[in-house]
Write a structure and sequence with these properties.
The protein is α/β, with parallel strands linked by helices. It folds into three domains: about 20-365, Aldolase class I (TIM Barrel); about 395-485 and about 660-700, NAD(P)-binding Rossmann-like Domain (Rossmann fold, 3-Layer(aba) Sandwich); about 500-540 and about 575-655, FAD/NAD(P)-binding domain (3-Layer(bba) Sandwich), CATH 3.50.50.60. It is built from 22 helices and 27 strands. Strands 3-4-5-8-9-10-11-12 form an eight-stranded parallel β-barrel, surrounded by seven helices. Strands 15-14-13-16-27 form a five-stranded parallel β-sheet. A five-stranded parallel β-sheet has the order 18-25-19-20-21. α2 packs across α3 (about 145-165), α3 (about 145-165) packs parallel to α6 and α6 (about 205-220) packs parallel to α7. The site of iron/sulfur cluster has 14 residues, from α10.
Length: about 700
C-alpha cells in the first residue's frame, strides 16, 4: 500500500508548489505544508501526552512539512484557562520528549506554540497591557507593571529554551488572534503611557523584544515562527503601516517564518466557519509578501484560513500569495492529507468541512477535540480500526452519515457489507444540508464516502427501500439499522392546509415557496431553512460562500491599507423573502446551535431582516383572512391571551424529528441481531457528528 503511494522519480508532482521543499538555510522543510496550531485539549493534562504523541506522529507519518503544536502557556498568567498546558520547567520539558521523539521517528518536524492569552485568559490571574476586560471573558485582567512585562518576556524566552531542550525543531510565538502580544499592539487594548504604550514603536516593543531575546537564547539554527495579525477585524485595529512596520521589525529581530493570523477572537466577522469562502483571506498575505519583497525582504510568509484541499493550497502558492500554506483542521479530518495528495489521490482525502462541531466547539466546552468526519482524531490510541479476525456478512440499512460510516468501516476491516438506501443517492439528510448557502463543503463528505464505498468494495444498492422480509434468510450475521429519522408531526389544527410544507418538501422536493414565509421551529434545520429561503437559493441566487468578493462585501471586510483593521460597512444583498422564524421556548432563538457558529447564523439572518419570535403557542392554521395565503393563529405569554393572526404565503414545519426504526421489531422477532445507530437510535440532539461517531465505533467493535 505504502509503495503504491510513493512517487517515482519519473512521476511529475501533482502539486509542484505545495510539495516542493522550503530551504530555511540551516534546515529544510520537505514541503510547503504547515500543520497549524490547534487547541485539542490533549495539551492540558500530562496523562494525555502519549495520546498527543500518537496524534502528531500520525500527522508526521502522513507527510506534513512542519507541525505546530497546540498552544502552551509560558507561565501561569498566560494560561488559557486554569491549569492549561504550560511549559515552564525542565520536568515539563522532559514530558514533551515523548511527543518530539514520536514525531522525529516518523521523519517529521515539530515546533511548539508559545501562547500567552493575556486578557483572553479564562481565569482570575490573567494580565494585559491595560485593565480592560475583553467581551469574551468574564475576568478583568490585571494591568502589567513594567517589571511584570519583563517577567512575561523572560517566560517566553524560558519556554523557547525548554522547547529546544525537549527536542522541538522550533517555536511559534503567538502574536495574533487578539492574544497578549496583539493586545499590546492596538490602542484599544493598550492605553499605557510608559515605554510599552502610546506611539506604535512602544506598542510593538513587546513583540520585538520577545522575538529578539528568544533568537539570542536559542541560537541561529532554530526555527522561530512569529504569528502576525494581518487584519484584526475589530474597531481600532492595526493600520497596514503598523502591520508592515511590525513585520519588518520581527524579521530583523530574528524570525525564520512569518505565519499570519486573521481576526481577533472577539471580531464579529467569521474567519474559519464553513460559510467563509475557501482561501478568503490569502489576498492579505499576498499584500504583506509583496510589500516585504519590494523592500528586498525574503522572509517566507505563511498563509492560512479555510484552505482545505491540495488544489486550493497549490493555487495559492502558484499565485504567489504565500511561500507556505497553513492548514490545521484539515489534519484532524485526514492525517494522510499530504501523502494522498503526493500520490495523486486527492479524491481519497477526507475533507474538513469547517463545521467546528467536534473541534472548536469541543475546545470551548472543555472537551477533547475530535472531528465530525474523522472520529479517530485525538482518539488514535483508543479508536483503532483493525482487520477483522473473522470476516462476516453484514447488512447496513440507510446510507446517511451513520450508515455510511458503519458500512465503510466494516468493509475496511474486511467484512462483506451490503448497504441499502431507499433514495437514489447516498447521504441521507446530508443531501439537504449541502443545499444550504454556506454549507457547500458538505458535498465533500459525500464524495469521500462514495470513494470509500468503491475502494473498500461495499455492495451498495440505491433506490431500494428494504423491509424486514428482504433481510431475513439472507445469511446476514447482523443488521445495522441506520434508517435515520422522520419529521415530527406537531399536530397543529389545520396543518393540512396546502400552504404548509415540511422542510423536506422545501429542501428535497423543491416545492415552490411564496414571498412571505413563516418557519415553525428554530432549531438547526429551522435556521438553515431561513438561510436558504432568505438567500433565495431556490430561485438560483448564488451563495456568497462561492464568491469571495461578494462575501467580503456582505460582511464588510476591506483592504486594511484603506481601512485600519480591515473593517468597513457591511453591504448584504437584499433578502429574497420576508421570513419569520418562530419557536415555542421563551428566550433567544438558536440556543441549540454550535458554540462557535451560532452567532454567525444569527448575524447572517439579521442582515436578511429575518424576524425571530420566541414564546409562541401555535393555536391554529387556516385560510388567510385576506384570501391570499395561509394564516397562523398564535398566542403569546403564559396565559395565552395575547392572540394574533399572522399571514404568510407559505408555512414551513421544522419542528424536530423522531427516530425511524420500524424494521427493528420484525428483524429481532426473526432472530436477527440488530444494531441501531444515528437517528434510528436517538433523534434528540442528533447531528452528523454523533451519527458518524456511532457508526464508526460500532463497526470498529463488531
Ligand atoms: P439520515 O441522514 O436520516 O439517513 C437515513 C437514511 O436511511 C436515509 O438515506 C433513508 O433514505 C434511509 N432509509 C430509511 N429507511 C430505509 C429503508 N427501510 N430502506 C432503505 N433505506 C432506508 N448535522 C450536522 O452535524 N451539522 C449540520 O450542519 C447539519 N445540517 C443539517 C441541515 C439540514 C437542512 C438537515 C436536514 C440536517 C442537517 N444535519 C446536520 C443533520 C444531519 O444531516 C443528521 O444528523 C444526519 O444525517 C443523521 O444521520 P443518519 O445516518 O442517522 O440518518
Ligand atoms: P431541533 O434542533 O431539535 O429543533 C426542533 C425545533 O422544533 C425546535 O425549535 C423546537 O423548539 C421545535 N419543536 C419541537 N417539538 C415541537 C412540536 N411538537 N411542535 C412545534 N415545535 C416543536 O431539531 P432540527 O432543527 O430538526 O434539527 C435536527 C438535528 O439536526 C439537530 O439536533 C441539529 O443538531 C442537527 N442540525 C445541526 C445543524 C448545525 O448547524 N449544527 C444544522 C441543522 C441541523 P420549541 O419546542 O421551542 O418550539
Ligand atoms: Fe473540520 Fe468539522 Fe472536523 Fe473540525 S469537526 S476538523 S471543522 S470537519
Amino acid at each position: 500500500m505504502l509503495g503504491a503511494m510513493t512517487l517515482t522519480a519519473a512521476t511529475p508532482s501533482p502539486f509542484p508548489h505545495l510539495l516542493s521543499p522550503l530551504d530555511l538555510g540551516f534546515t529544510r522543510l520537505k514541503n510547503r505544508v504547515l500543520m497549524g496550531s490547534m487547541h485539542t485539549g490533549l495539551e492540558d493534562s500530562r496523562k494525555h501526552f502519549p495520546r498527543m504523541a500518537e496524534f502528531y506522529a500520525e500527522r508526521a507519518r502522513g507527510g506534513v512539512g512542519l507541525i505546530v503544536t497546540g498552544g502552551f502557556a509560558p507561565n501561569i498568567e498566560g494560561w488559557a484557562k486554569p491549569f492549561a498546558g504550560t511549559l515552564a520547567t525542565p520536568r515539563a520539558a522532559q514530558r514533551h520528549q515523548t511527543v518530539t521523539r514520536a514525531v522525529h521517528a516518523e521523519g517529521g518536524k515539530i515546533a511548539l506554540q508559545i501562547l500567552h492569552t493575556g486578557r483572553y485568559g479564562y481565569h482570575p490571574l490573567c494580565v494585559a497591557p491595560s485593565r480592560i476586560q475583553s467581551p469574551i471573558s468574564p475576568f478583568t485582567p490585571r494591568a502589567l507593571s513594567a517589571r511584570g512585562i519583563e517577567r512575561q518576556i523572560r517566560a517566553f524566552v524560558r519556554c523557547a529554551q525548554l522547547a529546544r531542550d525537549a527536542g522541538y525543531d522550533g517555536v511559534e510565538v503567538m502574536g495574533s488572534e487578539g492574544y497578549l502580544i496583539n493586545q499590546f499592539l492596538v490602542g484599544h487594548t493598550n492605553q499605557r503611557q510608559d515605554e510599552w504604550g502610546g506611539a506604535y514603536a512602544n506598542r510593538m516593543r513587546l513583540a520585538v523584544e520577545i522575538v529578539r531575546r528568544i533568537r539570542e537564547a536559542v541560537g541561529p539554527d532554530y526555527i522561530l515562527i512569529y504569528r502576525i495579525s494581518l487584519i484584526d477585524l475589530i474597531p481600532g485595529g492595526s493600520s497596514w503601516e503598523e502591520v508592515l512596520a511590525l513585520a519588518r521589525a520581527i524579521s530583523t529581530a530574528g524570525a525564520t517564518l512569518l505565519n499570519t493570523g486573521i481576526g481577533w477572537h472577539e471580531a464579529r466577522i467569521p474567519t474559519i466557519a464553513t460559510s467563509v469562502p475557501r482561501g478568503a483571506f490569502t489576498w492579505v498575505t499576498r499584500k504583506l509578501r509583496d510589500d516585504l519583497r519590494s523592500e528586498g525582504n525574503p522572509i517566507p510568509v505563511v498563509t492560512s484560513n479555510r484552505i482545505n484541499t491540495p488544489d486550493v493550497a497549490e493555487g495559492i502558492l502558484a499565485n504567489g500569495d504565500a511561500d507556505m500554506v497553513s492548514m490545521a483542521r484539515p489534519f484532524l479530518a485526514d492525517p494522510d492529507f499530504v501523502r494522498k495528495a503526493a500520490a495523486g489521490r486527492s479524491q481519497d482525502i477526507n475533507t474538513c468541512i469547517a463545521c467546528n462541531q467536534a473541534c472548536l466547539d469541543h475546545a470551548f466546552k472543555n472537551r477533547l477535540a475530535s472531528c465530525l468526519v474523522n472520529p479517530r482524531a485525538c482518539h488514535e490510541t483508543e479508536l483503532v480500526i483493525s482487520p477483522a479476525i473473522q470476516t462476516k456478512r453484514y447488512a447496513v440499512v440507510g446510507a446517511g452519515p451513520a450508515g455510511l460510516a458503519a458500512a465503510t468501516t466494516l468493509a475496511q476491516r474486511g467484512h462483506d457489507v451490503h448497504l441499502f438506501d431507499a433514495a437514489e443517492r447516498i447521504g441521507g439528510q446530508f443531501n439537504m444540508a449541502k443545499t444550504i448557502p454556506g454549507k457547500e463543503e458538505f458535498h465533500e463528505t459525500l464524495r469521500y464516502f462514495a470513494r470509500l464505498i468503491d475502494t473498500n468494495g461495499v455492495r451498495l444498492q440505491l433506490g431500494r427501500r428494504v423491509s424486514a422480509s428482504d433481510l431475513v434468510g439472507q445469511g446476514f450475521d447482523a443488521v445495522v439499522l441506520a434508517t435515520g429519522v422522520t419529521p415530527r408531526n406537531p399536530h397543529i389544527p389545520g396543518q393540512e392546509h396546502p400552504g404548509v410544507l415540511s422542510y423536506i418538501d422545501v429542501l428535497w422536493h423543491q416545492r415552490p415557496v411564496g414571498r412571505r414565509v413563516g418557519i415553525l421551529g428554530a432549531g438547526g434545520i429551522g435556521f438553515d431553512v431561513a438561510e436558504y429561503l432568505s438567500h433565495g437559493a431556490d430561485q438560483g441566487h448564488a451563495s456568497p460562500t462561492l464568491d469571495t468578493t461578494a462575501w467580503l462585501r456582505e460582511w464588510g471586510v476591506g483592504d486594511p491599507q484603506a481601512h485600519p483593521g480591515g473593517l468597513l460597512l457591511p453591504q448584504p444583498a437584499p433578502p429574497a423573502r420576508e421570513v419569520t422564524l418562530m419557536q415555542r421556548k421563551p428566550g433567544k432563538t438558536g440556543q441549540s446551535l454550535g458554540k462557535t457558529t451560532g452567532w454567525i447564523h444569527r448575524a447572517a439572518l439579521k442582515t436578511k431582516n429575518v424576524r425571530m419570535v420566541s414564546g409562541v403557542h401555535y393555536e391554529r392554521i387556516g385560510p388567510a383572512p385576506s384570501g391570499q395565503g395561509v394564516a397562523l393563529m398564535i398566542s403569546q405569554g403564559a396565559d395565552r391571551q395575547d392572540a394574533q393572526v399572522l399571514e404568510f404565503d407559505t408555512l414551513v414545519l421544522c419542528t424536530g424529528q423522531e427516530p425511524l426504526r420500524d424494521l427493528q421489531a420484525p428483524l429481532q422477532q426473526a432472530g436477527i441481531t440488530v444494531h441501531l445507530i444515528g437517528g434510528a437510535f436517538e433523534a434528540g440532539e442528533l447531528d452528523a457528528k454523533r451519527a458518524i461517531d456511532m457508526g464508526t465505533r460500532l463497526a470498529a467493535a463488531m
